[in-house]
Design goal:
Keywords: Membrane, Transmembrane, Transmembrane helix
Helix content: over 70%
Order of helices and strands: HHHHH
Distance between the termini: 37 Å
Shape: flat
Number of strands: 0
Structural class: mainly alpha
Number of domains: 1
């Protein structure tokens, strides 16, 4: 027990400012890691799908292995994001989002943010599918227009989900902030 107490004394940040900067740094690294894993997941999924689309024989089960890796990547991203988001909302904060401080839901901002996010996802999906396809078949046999349609379709599907996610985040964080304010008044 004494060793554990000494460990805590020596390996905690020297002051609150250092702790705040460390938290910001780790948040950036975490967000970057999530983005890289999502792009890698899109690539793996695209690669395994495009092997089937172009009727390329898959005797060694490579496509199945890629699909399993992709599922594990997406599961890890979902779990990590869900845990971090849930913890932030429970604390009444949501990292770097001032949206939760608004008294009424900022619908205009949420629409713009959702649209921007969807366009970004569409571009990433188009690029990852196109890169994977270029690695599989010659460039003149690539279906770039289909990749663009798939990216656009995913964007249309994601828009209401992102918008609803922002609304639910705002609603729950506002409830928690109001609860904390009532506790402080008492």
């Amino acid at each position: 027990m004494k060793l554990l107490a000494q460990f805590r004394d020596y390996f905690q940040p020297a002051d609150e400012r250092i702790e705040l900067e460390l938290n910001r740094t780790y948040a950036r690294i975490f967000n970057g890691m999530i983005m890289v894993l999502l792009v890698l997941g899109f690539y793996c999924l695209s690669f395994s799908q495009l092997l089937s689309v172009h009727n390329i024989p898959n005797s060694d089960g490579f496509s199945l292995q890629m699909l399993i890796i992709t599922q594990v990547i997406f599961l890890l991203v979902f779990i990590a994001s869900a845990v971090a988001s849930r913890k932030a909302v429970e604390l009444g904060t949501f990292v770097n989002l001032k949206i939760v401080n608004e008294e009424s839901f900022p619908a205009s901002f949420s629409s713009k943010f959702s649209a921007f996010s969807c366009v970004l996802v569409a571009i990433v999906l188009f690029l990852t599918r196109s890169i994977a396809e270029i690695q599989i078949v010659p460039i003149d046999q690539c279906f770039f227009y289909i990749n663009a349609i798939l990216g656009g379709g995913l964007a249309v599907f994601l828009f209401p989900l992102i918008y609803a996610g922002l609304y639910l985040t705002w609603k729950e964080a506002r409830a928690k902030a109001d609860e904390l304010a009532r506790e402080l008044e008492d």
